Amino acid sequence: QAQLVESGGGLVQPGGSRRLSCAASERIGFSLPMGWFRQTPGKEREFVAALSRSGGVTFYADSVKGRFTVSRDNYKNTVYLQMNSLKPEDSAVYSCAARVQYTSITTYYIRDDDYDYWGQGTQVTVSS
After folding, report:
1. In whole numbers, what is the pLDDT of the chain averaged over residues?
2. I need a labelling partner for 93 at 20 to 30 A (CA). Which of 18, 19, 26, 49 fits?
3. Do 23 and 5 contact (CB within 8 A), yes or no?
C-alpha cells in the first residue's frame, strides 16, 4: 500500500492553475514535515516547496515563489500544492515527500535526501 498518493496532475494551458494533493497514509504518521519536488527527463529532481509540521512555515524555490502555495489539512493528513500562473517550464512529474523525524513543529526541509517517503508522482504538463 502506497504511503503517499498524489493526485491532481494533468494538462493545463500557460497562465492557468492546478492544485495537486498528497494524501499520507496513517501508517507513516500524522502532520509530518512535507515537501514537493519535480523532475523532468534527463534532469535531477528539483525542490519546489516545503512545509513544516504545523503548516505555519513554508519555503519555496525561487522559480515558483509568488506563484505556488503549499498548504496542509492535518485532519485529512493531506498536503496541497496550489500552482498559479503556470509556465511551460513548470511541466514535470511532481512528487510529494514526507519526513518522519523532525526537530520542531516549525522546521522545514529542502533536500530530497532529507525525506523518508515518496509518492509515485503526478505529471503536470503546461502547454497550449
Report:
1. 94
2. 26
3. yes
Lowest model confidence (mean pLDDT) among 8-12, 16-20, 47-51, 106-110: 106-110
Distances (CA, A) of 123 to 11, 42, 109: 8, 15, 23
CA distance 95 to 6: 7
C-alpha distances out from residue 101 to 17, 33, 77, 110, 117, Å: 32, 8, 16, 14, 11
Amino acid at 120: Q
How far apart CA 97 and CA 92 sit, in angstroms, is 16
- Tens of pLDDT, residue by residue over 77-112, are 999 999 999 999 999 999 999 999 888 888 999 999
Q: How far apart are CA 101 and CA 80, in angstroms?
A: 21
